[in-house]
Design goal:
The protein is mainly alpha-helical and 236 residues long. It has 2 domains: 12-76, Arc Repressor Mutant, subunit A (Orthogonal Bundle), CATH 1.10.10.10; 93-222, GntR ligand-binding domain-like (Four Helix Bundle (Hemerythrin (Met), subunit A)), CATH 1.20.120.530. 66% of the residues lie in helices and 3% in strands. It has helices at 10-27, 38-44, 49-61, 78-90, 95-109, 113-119, 122-135, 141-158, 162-170, 172-179, 186-204, 208-221; strands spanning 65-68, 72-75. Strands 1-2 form a two-stranded antiparallel ribbon. A hairpin with a 3-residue loop joins strand 1 (65-68) and strand 2. Helix 5 packs antiparallel against helix 12 (208-221). It is elongated. GO terms for molecular function: DNA binding; DNA-binding transcription factor activity. Keywords: DNA-binding, Transcription, Transcription regulation. Residues 10-78 form the HTH gntR-type domain. This is FadR family transcriptional regulator. It comes from Agrobacterium tumefaciens.
């Protein structure tokens, strides 16, 4: 049977995969965006639908995309999420690991002030405050760490740097695991709330020094709950 009548040649499929990769880059597509249909891509790339279908299978096999009813092929990050979760699971939460992770966060979050002055709207600030208020009522340490991450993710995203936002989001499982430290205690939730409020007030007052001071204190606070080699508690 000829390739044109049966399965497409691997080289033809690889070529279409490469063209789809270029299309994703040129259009600035990201996770959650829908790729053009088989028919559209076959016409665009002057290829057969069978070859495009095999290219789609390749994307799905690598966890780059998934089929969703009524939408089509949607870009996803299943492979990346699996690797993140594995890394977070395998990582020992020690004092050294805490310092390394929070050191990364200092390099990013403490240098957001200028960008936030330009890009952070009042609506953004209100959303950040709402998330912070919810921390006080978190039912579990997991819920509290999810809200804590969301608070910081909102600030990072509001800075308007797409690469920084995507990089920070990639580290979510690791950062959230560190954020679990001490959140089994109600007094810690109150402290986190107050620290966040101080950061918000510094932004409202456009006070660079206060912002850096309170962010630094906040990023250091959880260390007292992590004796070397011990994992944070997980229940409230």
């Amino acid at each position: 049977m000829n390739a044109s009548e049966g399965e497409p040649k691997a080289s033809a499929v690889d070529e279409i995969v490469g063209q789809i990769r270029t299309l994703i880059r040129e259009r600035g597509l990201g996770v959650g965006d829908v790729l053009p249909s088989e028919v559209e891509l076959a016409e665009k790339f002057a290829s057969s639908r069978n070859t495009v279908r095999e290219a789609f299978r390749t994307l799905k096999a690598y966890g780059i995309a998934e089929s969703r009813q009524k939408l089509g092929l949607v870009l996803t990050d299943q492979h990346r999420n699996a690797m993140q979760d594995l890394f977070a699971f395998a990582m020992e939460i020690s004092a050294d690991a805490f310092q390394d992770i929070q050191g990364y966060r200092r390099l990013t979050e403490m240098n957001l002030f200028e960008l936030l002055l330009v890009n952070l709207s009042q609506d953004h600030l209100c959303e950040v405050e709402d998330v912070n208020a919810a921390i006080l009522n978190a039912a579990t340490a997991e819920d509290a760490s999810e809200l804590d991450f969301k608070f910081h993710m909102l600030l990072v995203a509001a800075a308007g740097n797409r690469t920084l936002t995507e990089t920070y989001a990639m580290l979510k499982p690791v950062i959230q695991r560190v954020m679990m430290a001490g959140k089994s205690q109600r007094s810690t939730l109150k402290s986190v709330f107050n620290e966040h409020q101080s950061i918000i007030e510094a932004l409202r007052n456009k006070d660079r020094i206060a912002f850096a001071y309170h962010m630094d204190r906040h990023l250091s606070a959880g260390l007292v709950f992590i004796p070397d080699g011990a994992a944070p508690q997980k229940s409230i």
